[in-house]
Amino acid sequence: MAHLPNGLYDLLLDERIRTLALQLRDAGQADIEHLTGTARRQRLTEVLTRLLPELLDQAAEAEDDSAREERELALINGLLAHLRRSDTPASDWSAPVLALRAIYRNNARPAHPPTGLVAPWLFTAGRADPSLFAELRAELGSADRVDIVVSFITWSGLRKLRDVLDAATAVGADGQPRTRLRVITTTYTGATEARAVEELAGLPGVELRISLDGRRSRLHAKAWLFHRATGFGTAFVGSANLSAAALLGGVEWTVKFTQAGQADLFAAAEAHFETLWNDPEFQRFDPRDDSHSQKLRRALQQAKGNKGGGAETIATPTWFDLQPKSYQQAMLDRLAAERRHGRARNLVVAATGTGKTVVAAFDYKRLCEQQGGRPRLLFVAHRVELLRQAMETYRQVLRAPAFGELLADGAEPEGSEHLFATIMSVAARELLARHGADYWNTVVIDECHHLPASQFDAFANQIRPRYLLGLTATPERADGRSVLHYFDARPDGSPAVELRLWDALDQQLLAPFEYYATNDSTDLSAIRWNQPGELGQLAKVISGNDARARRVTQAVREYVADHAAMRAIAFCVDIAHADFMASCFDAAGLPARAITSATPRDERERAPRELAAGTLKVLCTVDLYNEGVDIPEANTLLFLRPTQSPVVFQQQLGRGLRLADGKDSCLVLDFVGRLQNDFRFDVLYRAITGLNRQQLIEAVESGFTTLPPGCHIQFDRVAREQVLTGLRQISRQTWRRLTAELRYYASTRRGAPPSAASRCSPTTTTPSARISSTGNRRTPPDPIPRPGAATANRRATAGGSSFSCGKHADRRTGRWGR
């Protein structure tokens, strides 16, 4: 080693660097300690522990495992025999055993942290234990770079470290600070103090990034990473924020690990910090920019729920305040990129609650800016509630309170330039025949998983806008029919934009769910799923079933922690079932109401408000709340309508995942009856986890270990066996079913089935899922950027499944003209 950088060490000196280190000591530029007794034996043992794996790797350079085993055993046995001999020759180590502690210039000897630079340590704030505060001060005094991630920063904490921070960041003769800091924090709960953030960010060499969304608690990490050019970095991970209570007064537990002793852990911490640092949610904070300070103070007051007076009180947000969030901006950028590549008909797949309509509105706003004026717009959906919400969103985004007209529910628009219309109204008014297929510049189809339905399909085949945008959270249909061929094909066959449920949960854009599947013993084995008459068959078995209703109310008592705080939605089979369950909940002391198509409109609109206020504890509904209704306060979902449709399953789950103050998670109770062995559990659970069949079998058997943070899936014993039986049955595919699934898979990727299914090899496990090569999660190959080192490991294109096909038939083209 020709050069040893300045800084702290805890390095045992071998013959390679011994001479150089002793020369530096003699020049007054290095500290060297003579190790004796237990310390010497411990360090020599560490050397052997570190080198032994390398020696084993070198000895095991053979392709045959048996030969590798023989060589490894020969090495170990020879080493033991060698160590037991008294005439051991000289090695690379010589007496006395010396350890380099530091190299420095100009007598600027750095202080060693009390617990050293190699061994791990647990700080528990015990009376006789080393102080975390003293340790951090010592670390700050000797690090070259520091990375800090904390949930909040307070002035009381910062001022206790201010002197050592001032010294560390002081600018030298070269105009550069000795130590550079990067800090990540949040406004969560309003605990961060603006003065502390401004003072810290104002120090030389300090970069600070902050999340201004105080509703989201996704950043729970508290970590301090100290980097040294010497290679002796340290990391502190635990519960210590940059506050006085955390550093001195609180009962905080923090684990220290080191670059020299626990290299893998240190590297993982570095990688995760980099991921967070590059996450667009955390915005750069410049204390010299007044607008940054103003945004910070507003965000802190909003996070505190401060509605009182004062100079910094934030007014109730108006439609002038609406801006896309960082992940929505990423979606907009993706759409712009698709159009630059000549793809004008694009599908946006985004989880319920992530703001698909907001993205569509901002996309239209950008088209207005590019083209000038207000290009003609037709927004189509199948329900008037969706249209009303969409029109209000566009008005807010465009800052135009009179924008758009409704064509639905008896409303008569004065013009046709900017219409929000149901598909039924479009057909009944013969809009395309009257105005022409290319009349509208931009057409948006909401909940476009309905496109294969006859009315939507006819509309899609005729309309020819300049830009088409499809919105859905659930493109996978139970009947296997694809929607991708209605849109321009990307090179990899994926939608233009994808933000799947598990991605949104990973980013804490949605509340995490706790899903419990419990057996209800109802015999559903005769139900013909996804066939005409399915709901009628279910109603005969479930509606009026007192035994099942008792199991439902019993499960609510068992799983719901606080019935007074419960805000539940129960998804029922039909009106009679909803009425029946509402009476059952009332009888159990839980105020409930059935909300169905037979309910008067004013009552339907009032019921969600009563649920949010707690006047009602349960809303029993039939289909009405699957789409287009936002009740963020809903924290409990009761799946009382069995379904094999991934669309319905995911839509119902999405009703409880919107973020709300005081809502930590959503409890989901699913009631699993006796089903046919080939019931498609794989399709349902893939929709909410992204796992393929084999991964699902392993997860049900041993636990779901790759779920997003805060999420949990659990089955009782009977439900677990029922689900496992179904998954195993489906995994034993016949050739006929396999080729049918390959046809479906190909249609979703190219818009048409393969021309010769016989050329497909039957080695795939789940052709309709693209599986990560790491064996974790099904994900889009080119997703919206998001954080999480663990999440990043799940990213891959198709490759985890092994199947090969001949050429696919050409994709259908010419749906829309320019």
Automatic annotation (TrEMBL):
One of its GO terms (biological process) is phosphorus metabolic process. One of its GO terms (cellular component) is cytosol. Keywords: ATP-binding, Helicase, Hydrolase, Nucleotide-binding. Residues 215-246 form the PLD phosphodiesterase domain. InterPro entries: Helicase/UvrB_N (IPR006935), Helicase_ATP-bd (IPR014001), Helicase_C-like (IPR001650), Helicase_Restrict-Modif_Enz (IPR050742), P-loop_NTPase (IPR027417), PLipase_D/transphosphatidylase (IPR001736). One of its GO terms (molecular function) is helicase activity. CDD domains: DEXHc_RE_I_III_res, SF2_C_EcoAI-like. Residues 787-800 have a biased composition (Low complexity). Residues 551-699 form the Helicase C-terminal domain. Residues 758-777 have a biased composition (Polar residues). The keyword Glycoprotein does not apply. Residues 807-818 have a biased composition (Basic and acidic residues). The keyword Nucleotide-binding applies. This is Helicase. The lineage of its organism: Bacteria, Pseudomonadati, Pseudomonadota, Betaproteobacteria, Rhodocyclales.
